[in-house]
Give the backbone structure.
Amino acid sequence: MWKALKARLYQGYRTGKFPTKTPPNLPERFAGRPEVDQEKCAGKEEMLSSLCPVKAISVINGKLTLDLGKCIFCKKCAEKCDGIRFTKEYRLAAMKKEDLLTDSTYYTPPLPQDRSLAKLCGRSLKIRQVSAGGCGACELDFNVLNTLAWDMGRFGIQVVASPRHADCILVTGPVSRNMLLALKKTYDAAPRPVWVIACGACAVSGGLYGESGQCEQKLDEILKVDLYIPGCPPHPSTILEGIMRLMGKGAGPENK
Ligand code: SF4
């Protein structure tokens, strides 16, 4: 007992100040929101879209566009074209799928238009996580938010074991055929209203596994999704910032 208390005093307060005061401490190789310089990308559209492993690059309205919902942030496109630059912008989550399309250097994180979740759960959000065929990466980066370094419980965000206690279902994975029924049952068991969060490229768009015969439908073809969190896997700061934005707490601090 004394040993434990001594160790606790020695270690001090270890929880980071993100996202209330400071931007997250991101590793050097972190790849955040890409910036697209249309002039520098001109003439390279076909080459770039053919090298992207998840077909995240296309031309929309005459502009080279990256779909962050599909992107696995492998940086292959940036290696071949200096018009694409991955920044340290970690605030990637969006409430609408079209807000995940990026074709410029300009960006402001979108705020929720539907304030119902903020009104009902602004101070306490219970989440039931469903791994619908995930590889474990998104699950681990979400799980880390429960550790003392992130401590999402200080914002009232908690993971619950039963969907009966959940305000929100956080889904990871491309929704494999084997997990489809379990996902639907979990959603049906949650009291209304219930919100759905798609966490990671697989849940948002199918990712690398979306075209597999084992994945019949994308998550947003099965359930109405309220928050899309891109990444493969998303960084914990991206997940936490997105959830807090959905809760009506505003966008997280900018990472310059
Ligand atoms: S970083 Fe994203 S857009 Fe670029 S090649 Fe990789 S998956 Fe495609």
Observations:
- The mean pLDDT is 91.
- The first helix runs from residue 2 to 11.
- DSSP finds ten helices and ten strands in the chain.
